[in-house]
Amino acid sequence: xxxxxxxxxxxxxxxxxxxxxxxxxxxxxxxxxxxxxxxxxxxxxxxxxxxxxxxxxxxxxxxxxxxxxxxxxxxxxxxxxxxxxxxxxxxxxxxxxxxxxxxxxxxxxxxxxxxxxxxxxxxxxx
Length: 126
What we know:
globular, 47% strand, 126 residues, single chain
């Protein structure tokens, strides 16, 4: 049996452009893709913190160092420039893999530059 676990997350990235008349996908700065371990054409889930929209698409590479987060195609209806989003990728793992698994977490600043990375989500005090 396999279970779906969080593989990677880019937390609170800022949408820099939306392109309705594009084939589809989400273009992500190559620095962010590499830091998160998200591959080009990999399925991603996008959670729009600003609007509450949630949708699934795939990642494509944007030019390194540009800070680009471009929501494209039909998904462009679900985001606006300036929206904060969480971009997540999941992996199917068996029990043994799940025991060893550590997600890649990337925390960008307002310009989508990497501020820090982590392997676990900090526990919030109640």
